[in-house]
Amino acid sequence: MSPPILIFLSPLLLVLELVQLVLAERYLGVKQIERGFDPRTQEMSEGLAFCWSVGILTHWVWMVTLLPLRFGTGQVVCMLVTSMIGYAIRRGCALKWVLVTLTLEGAIRVGMHISLLSLAWKLL
């Protein structure tokens, strides 16, 4: 059995995940929290908001598309559940916990991407 071709998008999505973590730190970082500044009330540049949204949507479409292929199902389900739970927590928590939640979410998804890539590597 060879890995599905969609798995090879994982490195790109892994990079997007890491960029998202950096952007989250920039916009929701400790310095912002210490100042009492809530960046959620400020507008993000249109280009950045578009790229961020497309990255998130691409990641979701990729995960849902991988489910019926029966490759790395555990990792994909873990990423989907982590994203859903993280979103639910972020919607209702205080600003200082948003960064913590985003970081934990990102770390889990990064780990699952690495696991998927190692699984694909073993099958090559």
Can you characterise this structure?
The chain is mainly alpha-helical and 124 residues long. The chain has one domain (5-123). The protein is built from five helices and no strands. Helix 1 (10-28) packs antiparallel against helix 5 and helix 3 (46-66) crosses helix 4 (73-92). The protein starts with 9 loop residues before the first helix and ends with a helix.
**What is the 3D form?**
elongated
Catalogue the unreliable spans: none
Mean of pLDDT: 87
**Number of strand elements:** 0
Structural class: mainly alpha
Radius of gyration: 16 Å
User: Which percent bin holds the helix content?
Assistant: over 70%
Sheet with the most strands, sense and barrel status: none
How many domains in all?
1
Give the SSE order as H and E letters: HHHHH
What gap, in angstroms, lies between the N and C termini? 9 Å
Strand content: under 5%
Structure keywords:
mainly alpha; 77% helix
Please provide a brief summary of the model.
Helix content is 77%, strand content 0%.
Write the layout of secondary structure elements.
Layout: H1 10-28, H2 30-35, H3 46-66, H4 73-92, H5 95-123
Helix pairs in contact: 1-3, 1-5, 3-4, 4-5
